[in-house]
Amino acid sequence: MTRSKFRMSLFASCLVLASGGAIAQTANASTGSQADASFVKAASAAGLAEVKLGKLATENGGSDDVKTFGKNMVDDHAAAGEELKTIAAGKSIPVSSEPMPADAKVADQMAGQKGAAFDMAFKKKMVADHQKVIKLFTRESTNGKDADLKAFATKTLPTLKHHLEMAQKLPAAK
């Protein structure tokens, strides 16, 4: 092989290696974007579910604690939802416009309950929902690729953890 052909071969090999790295980086960025988009979809749907259930609690709750907690859910999750919507819009990531179907179904079932029966179902749902959403936000705050979404998740986590603590202290029945 002549020196010129060797250089061309070496140059071509370097191009292939470099382009492979670029493809891998694009794939990683795409995967990161998909994970962040999945977070936005799941977090926004969960927030809408909490707002819906919070409104039900203010209307159907049997205890003042449940009604007050329901109002907190509406206020806190609506505010977080607006913040997430603003961040997502700046990145052209769609947010959910409805709770997940399973959450909507549970809310519809709970809408027919009042008083102590509602309080028991609400407490159970709030504990389970907040445990699930804490895992979602923890994962995004740790592994998220988008700095703004990662910061949002990190900032929101203490409130979600506080909600879980409050939900666990709700009366099961009166």
Description:
Keywords: Signal. It comes from Luteibacter yeojuensis. Residues 35-170 form the DUF4142 domain. This is DUF4142 domain-containing protein. This protein has 174 residues and is mostly helical. It has a single domain, classed as Ferritin, core subunit, four-helix bundle (Ferritin), CATH 1.20.1260.10. The chain contains five helices and no strands. The radius of gyration is 23 Å and the shape is elongated. Mean pLDDT is 85; it is low at 4-31.
CATH superfamily placement: Ferritin, core subunit, four-helix bundle
Mean pLDDT: 85
Share of residues in helices? over 70%
Distance linking N and C termini: 90 Å
How many domains is the backbone divided into? 1
Structural class: mainly alpha
Low-confidence stretches: 4-31
What fraction of the residues are assigned to beta strands by DSSP? under 5%
CATH T-level fold name: Ferritin
The profile of the biggest β sheet is: none
What would you say the CATH architecture is? Up-down Bundle
**What general outline do the C-alpha atoms trace?**
elongated
What is the H/E order?
Answer: HHHHH
- The CATH class turns out to be Mainly Alpha
Count of individual beta strands: 0
Nearest-angstrom radius of gyration?
23 Å
Alpha plus pi helix count: 5
Brief write-up:
It contains 5 helices and no strands. With 174 residues, the protein is an all-alpha fold. The longest helix is centred in the first third of the chain and has 58 residues, at 3-60.
